Please model this.
Amino acid sequence: MTEQKTETRKKDVKYLTVKELLKSRGKILGLKAVAGTRDMNRRITVSEINRPGLAIAGHMEQFRAERIQIIGQGEYAYCIKEDPRKVISNLNKMFSAPEIPCVIVTGGVKPLPALKQACAKAGIPLLVTSFDTSMFIRELTIFLDDQLAAIAYLHGVLVNIYGLGVLIQGDSGVGKSECALELLKRGHILIADDVVEVKRRIGYILVGNSPRNIKHYMEVRGLGIIDVELLFGVGSIMDQSLIEMHVKLEAVTSVSLGNYDRTGLASVEETILDVPVPSLRLPVTPGRNLAVLIEVAALNQRLKNQGYFVAKKLNESLIRDMGKK
Model:
């Protein structure tokens, strides 16, 4: 298996302040600030959430200070039963980490005085919500994952073929948009043309969409800008799609055609935002119907995703037959 990296233009490291979290999701998630409000510009840089039960008990090993700290029913019950002096001592140790963005108490319970005191002393925003812990963590994680996802901009076309997101790349003028146009005529769906915005979501999956100002438009040499939705109907467009396959179109001469795989046994991957994506190199020569080839390649990739690798199956069958002889 070989792997190659695609050139991407990444955005700067993203973050969200506690103040922005309250403004955008305060009403929806029932969030209110009750202490440490003097430093609401603390940065949230990761979408993962931390339940600091062990840290409150004094075990600071592997404490993930960069995450939002959630005080649920379990942590709250421990704080009530334990000696208040021990609790506040452990909280002070825990809150000495400067990168803690905020602390959120769930379940609608009233924050303990020791917790309020420790947050106020460290200048860490203390928030409360009436949401149940598991529901709150799920909703907050989904929101943060969308806001803080690693993002890159790629030059290419993203189409959805038989439910499989296919990213088509290649040099300028090689025929990416024309290929996508033919795929649209064959009933497939356009997500983005020219610039594809790619986000890496939880589970190391890639989601692609079009920048807002060029969404649902295509630029075709000789034709200019076309509105895909108006020409082909609302069924020809999607706002976003998973990226599950990569195709590289390469302009070649007949002399260099021998450099391309003839059997399909070689597995090549393209790395996008540190996520490997199955990749295919297609030579562009006069008379080749690239749209049909990509359509078949997408179907073949779906078979591979289901564990059926046609080339390997044939190769193993031939080896068995030769062994018998």
